[in-house]
Design brief:
single chain, alpha+beta, 10-stranded antiparallel sheet, 9 helices, 14 strands, about 25% strand
């Protein structure tokens, strides 16, 4: 189902199906987001400190390369926050600096256990930092048959309208509209309202789920030291996580991308989630990463 919804097109399509009011019900809970439009590029042609996927990261000399079980993690992306700030004024976050994303591609943690925390890292480098391009260090623990660096891509940002995952569910649509016919052809209506296409790389807005849309809830559980079964086994943990979940949001979503050279599980998606208070404070030490796949 689509990630980027054109609000006017959605109104037009649903109105033609006799459900004009349903578009407004859906859009009232929508959030702005940013789609990452990527273009393959030679790494040396991408400016130091510019937003990109893959290639080698730009880091201060004193920043140590993140490790997982004694092995250097793989670099995924860096985001120039000054560029994002121009397009996401609705959110509180540092208006400058470089945000760098690392992940243990060899072990590919799912984010379903507290120990998975050692398999990902997000680093904020201050805007005043003297950055240098750093290739990933080789390691005897590397798998010679597995990628350790990814193809570089320049990034441009496009503002999008992101709708809640519940809007993809026919049963939820019936509940919202009170009319069972509202769900008929609903997937097609959403597809007709989509903007863009291709890979679903995204900042902010709602995560686009591959499986259950529980990213905020799961992040609240895991960052409290819980595990996947904890909410089912302990009602107190579930209650606390339900209270905290609305304070979590998507930071960065990276889709499986053949051009970049990565695949998350079986054609899945990787989600970096952040607490809103931590985002506002520029604290990315407690970001949680979740992998979902088909």
């Amino acid at each position: 189902l689509p990630m980027r919804i054109n609000p006017e097109r959605l109104r037009e399509v649903l109105s033609s199906r006799g459900h004009a009011d349903l578009a407004e019900v859906m859009l009232k809970d929508s959030r702005p987001g940013l789609a990452l439009e990527t273009t393959p590029a030679e790494d040396e042609l991408i400016a130091i400190g510019a937003s990109k996927l893959g290639g080698s990261p730009d880091l201060p000399a004193q920043t140590e390369w993140p490790q997982s079980d004694g092995r250097p993690m793989e670099f995924l992306a860096q985001i120039d926050l000054s560029e994002v700030a121009e397009r996401a004024s609705h959110l509180a976050f540092p208006q400058a600096g470089l945000l760098s994303f690392f992940y243990d591609y060899k072990n590919s943690p799912w984010g379903s256990e507290p120990k998975d925390r050692s398999g990902f890292r997000v680093i904020l480098s201050a805007a005043s930092s003297d950055l240098e391009r750093r290739p990933r260090p080789a390691s005897p623990l590397d798998d010679p048959d597995m990628m350790t660096s990814f193809e570089p891509h320049a990034v441009a940002f496009e503002e999008i309208t992101s709708i809640p995952p519940s809007c993809f569910d026919a049963d939820e649509i019936v509940a919202l509209d009170g009319d069972e016919s509202a769900s008929e052809g609903f997937a097609e209506a959403l597809e007709e309202s989509e903007e863009g296409g291709g890979t679903r790389h995204q900042m902010f807005g709602f995560p686009h789920p591959v499986q259950e849309p529980c990213h905020e809830f799961e992040s609240a559980v895991m960052t409290r030291g819980g595990h996947a079964e904890a909410p089912r086994l302990d009602p107190a943990i579930r209650a606390q996580a339900e209270q905290e979940a609305p304070h979590w949001q998507l930071l960065l979503q990276l889709d499986t991308d053949e051009s970049a050279g990565w695949m998350w599980g079986d054609v899945g998606t990787l989600y970096f989630m952040v607490h809103k208070d931590a985002l506002a404070a520029g604290d990315f030490s407690n970001v949680w990463c979740i992998l979902q796949c088909c």
